[in-house]
Design brief:
The chain is an all-beta fold and about 280 residues long. It has two domains: about 130 residues, Sandwich (Immunoglobulin-like), CATH 2.60.40.1120; about 140 residues, Immunoglobulin-like. It contains one helix and 22 strands. It has a five-stranded antiparallel β-sheet, covered by helices on one side. It has a five-stranded mixed β-sheet with strand order 12-22-19-15-16, with no helix packed on it. A hairpin with a 5-residue loop joins strand 15 and strand 16. The longest helix has 7 residues. The chain is elongated and about 65 Å long.
Amino acid sequence: MKISSCFTAVLRSGVCLALFWGCTKAPFGEDDISAGSRQIRGRVELSRNLNPQGVFVWLDGVDVGTRTDKNGQFTITLPSVENQSARGGTSGVFNLYFYLANFTLTTTPVVLRNGVFVYPQGEINKDGELIRPKLIPELLHINIVVTPPIMTAPNIADTVLVEVKLSAVSDSVTVVFPKSIPDRFGALFFRNISSGAILVFPLFPGLTLDQTAIIGKATYTTIAVFYPARMRLPPGKYEIIPYLLVKHAPIPPALIASLGDKVEALGPNYLMIPFRREGGSFELQ
């Protein structure tokens, strides 16, 4: 298709991009326009040099996503042109989102023309790669303390205390504790470290109330108490995960839906929401 002398300038996230539908002269010069590709690659870094694995990278407009590997690397691959929409390839300026629930929601604008990426544009170089790693700042620090961390042959009265310590890194953060009472968690997830099996334990069965807290820099502590013998928890090494939802900058509903079915509900799919937590180890012998 010929390129017209008119092009539409679009400003997103402080980056001025150009859309090229039907132009006769390339606004960036003929050598700067790629024929396009169905892939974009890059790397993600987390503040405090935390493990960058598992960050959800999602492209709106086309609704495709992937997760970063252990090195923070990712590749977004578009569907074939004929599968993008009823009218064929998608064109426009869209946001590439980098999502980790307790980190700042971060984006990079990208350009699609007739179903393929156009680069170099903005933060994307001529090879379809991010020019520099995408740094994602921590929003909410989550630390889980389990006492005792190891228990052997518990009797029916033995209890384990789970303290969840939350603190905002900069601005305050709204956190929802579903199906809970004040200062108590409504449910805990147990992920078996060896097998990956997930057990879900609601602590207040039948309760439908949610609690909400505004978390600042001062540490906010909420707790849960469980009885391993009464819960018939099988022996093993576990990661204990509290049931909470972080509510910050508006997140596209399609992004959350792309993670899996009903990921915010109380069920195993909740663990498809990417978080970065510390602590939570428990061993039942």
